[in-house]
Design goal:
The protein has 16 helices and 2 strands. With about 325 residues, it is an all-alpha fold. It has one domain (about 5-315): Orthogonal Bundle (Farnesyl Diphosphate Synthase), CATH 1.10.600. Strands 1-2 form a two-stranded antiparallel ribbon. Helix 4 (about 60-85) runs parallel beside helix 7. The two termini are about 25 Å apart.
Amino acid sequence: MHNPKQLQDLIENAIQQITYPTTPANLYEPIKYIMSLGGKRIRPVMVLMAAELFTDEVNSAMDVALAIETFHNFTLVHDDIMDNAPLRRGKQTVHEKWGVNNAILSGDVMMVESNKHLSKVALDVLKPVLDTFNKTAQEVCEGQQLDMEFETRDNVSISEYIEMIRLKTAVLLGGAMKLGAIVSGASNEDACLLYQFGENLGIAFQLQDDILDVYGDPEKFGKQVGGDIISNKKTFLHLKAKELINTEETEVLLGSHENDSKKVAAVTQLYNNYGLRDLASAEMEAYLSIAFQSLDALSVQEERKSYLRTLAKQIMDRES
């Protein structure tokens, strides 16, 4: 079996071997560009790790891993357009470098490229692979749509928020694991358990992201601390605060402040007063516990699960 770093290296090598047409250059150069920007390749690694639970032929799942990574990067191209983001992984975003119209079209082609990778899997698993991938891809788009709608809604509930992050973030982790299991001959029960593992890990990951945005070390977290507070983003902490605070404190949470740093300080103090960090951490731990229960139930020798447990802990250990 391979450890996560070895799988990352296999994926990087496979990505470098992908060939795209040379013309029109403005259609295909952006794809090569975004795919070469690196990242941790967590989703394709999860595909391969799921496959290695059931087979030693890890390359049998590589086409699915490439499909998942191509799809993920397609969503980043389009998300960056919607967010008007100038940078991705420290580099110019595709739409900044080639223009919005080119970025949209290149993103569209990336979805086609994902399906071309999937078309290479064995015929006996092609239908369940396509069904799982298409369901996952559609749900990711549903999650993005809900996230955009929440920006203009005042009555978002915590249950709605959890469903949004499940769709936008978590189902891709679950889908990646299920696809790896399917192409490696796992039973339907084990494939579904791996989906549940990835999905609940993804929800826990996003809840942790909410916490780190307020309480994380910016040097270790890699993002501006308090960014969600400044933008009034409807995170778990924000929504839970709205449930608990009194009328006078609403102005602290939602009102204007002299400057951003004072707003972050005031809202953070409000969160502290109501113990919201602990409440959010408990919610995160609950989903993480469900994830590991699914992994425990998997009908695979414990030693074959060890790297997957390690990866999950690495995903959740972003401050150290």
